[in-house]
Amino acid sequence: MRPGEVLGILGPSAAGKSSLARVLVGVWQTSIGKVRIDGAELNHWDPEKLGKHIGYLPQDVELFSGSIAENIARFGNQDEEKIITAARMAGVHDMVQAMPAGYNTQIGEGGFALSGGQRQRVGLARALYGRPAYIILDEPNASLDADGEAALLSAIQQLRQDGSTVVLITHKTNILAIVDKILVLSHGQVAGLGSRDEMLAKLLGPRLAPVPAAAASA
């Protein structure tokens, strides 16, 4: 994948999508094969230096006891400008500002004080914090309403313009209008890989494939 490229990953349950996501960010190690960033194997990079350049939103969003700001900033040095930028990109800024303590709101262990959609948006903001160069989003729109999904699409467009490489795992075909390539997994194996239009035509037929975002707005 090249800078500014978006890859969509599709497949049925238990196809290996989330497993692949964990491997791509180094949460799990490979038993065979290699994951490389700029030609170097993932485990050759210093995790402390590499971490800030990677954004990861797991399918099951895990937030931690602390404030919203701390969670977005990954419990590191809190850069207020970067926190607000990430929150705006994730469409969560106005929601946070409406809370009595704003970004200092304590969300409790696991983020129990937030709804599922709010947790997902805060998790997305955390993944976007600092404008990482490499971002893995696993079912990022699973709990989002229409406004949240619109914010997600806008964020991915902005990341693409910034030259970030994005991997998007989803089961919702409408969001695939924004991707460049599609990878289809089945039983842990590659069942198909190609351009968005080519793969959607195979999967859905040309009449059902979503219209690319640029064409839809023309």
Account of the protein in words:
- By secondary structure, the chain is an alpha/beta fold.
- Helix content is 35%, strand content 17%.
- The chain is built from nine helices and eight strands.
- It has helices at 17-24, 47-50, 68-72, 80-89, 93-97, 116-128, 146-162, 196-204, 213-217; strands spanning 6-10, 36-37, 40-41, 54-57, 134-138, 165-169, 181-186, 189-195.
- The strands form two sheets. The protein has a six-stranded mixed beta sheet, sandwiched between helices.
- A hairpin with a 2-residue loop joins strand 2 (36-37) and strand 3 (40-41).
- Helix 4 crosses helix 6 (116-128).
- It starts with 5 loop residues before the first strand and ends with a helix.
- The model has no long low-confidence stretch (mean pLDDT 88).
